[in-house]
Amino acid sequence: MPVGTFRRAGSALLVVLIAVSILFPLAWMAIAGFKGKDEVLRSPFQFFPDMWRWSNYTAILKDHTFTRAMIVTFVGALIFTVLSLVVNSMAAYAFARLEFRGKRFWWVYCIMPMFIPTMAILLTSFVVVSKLGMLNTMAVLIIPGVASAAQMFFLRQYYLNFPIAVEEAAMIDGANRWQVFLRVFLPQSAAPFVVVGIASYLAYWNAYVWPILTITDPSLTQIMQFLGTFRSDRGNDWGMLMAGSTLASMPTVLLLLIFQRYIVNGVRISGMK
């Protein structure tokens, strides 16, 4: 058999193994949602339930706290994502294309948070938002994390690789910097915007520690806060927790499936020089 055939077979097998390793936890979580309370952590491990129970999924869907948390979190994630794209793209364009006094200093200042662990500034961040009266508001979940050093860096790298001739042609035609950004750069930023947008969405959707610290109003409960109650208030109901986690992951899975082509392109262009 030709060597090329062996290579293709090996590559295909590797892809299958990677896909299985990635999808197995998600599949197990979805199936565990059909198990009873004491069946999820049964030893020895059992993948499929003895009896398929739809009651976990129906009960979680009938829980108004769950549906409200899903809606509130989804709306907050959308607002957070849009603001992140606006703020970080404008900052990235400024640092990539504009010349101003202290540019190097301010760029270093803006990307410094990339090297500081979030937990290291958690207490000081809480004190700041508390003094500003932002506790128990959507603003406390959105505003502190809108500006992202990593996303600025990612978008700046893309804008640095943008052909300067196109920008100069637009300015010769009479466009100012703002018009160049809106009419030239933004239409060409679909791939990096999808990557940054999904990263922002996931950061908001998966947030757990920050909402617990800053939100006590039941009407603003986030989805991860709600799922956390299964480890305390609801007495370790693992089957219900798996059902809720599966449903909570669906919006993210759908987004990744819809925008997967742009994600691949965004990752590819991020390494271009």
Indicate the mean pLDDT: 84
How far is the first residue's CA from the last residue's CA? 40 Å
Roughly how much helix do the residues carry, as a percent range?
Answer: 55-70%
Rounded to the nearest angstrom, the radius of gyration is: 23 Å
Total number of helices: 14
Backbone structural class? mainly alpha
> Count of DSSP E strands?
0
Topology as a string of helices (H) and strands (E)? HHHHHHHHHHHHHH
Global geometry? globular
Low-confidence stretches: none
Q: What is the percentage of strand-forming residues? A: under 5%
For the sheet with most strands, the description reads: none
Structural notes for this entry:
With 273 residues, the chain is mainly α. It is 68% helix and 0% strand. The protein has 14 helices and no strands. The longest helix is centred in the N-terminal third of the chain and has 34 residues, at 64-97.
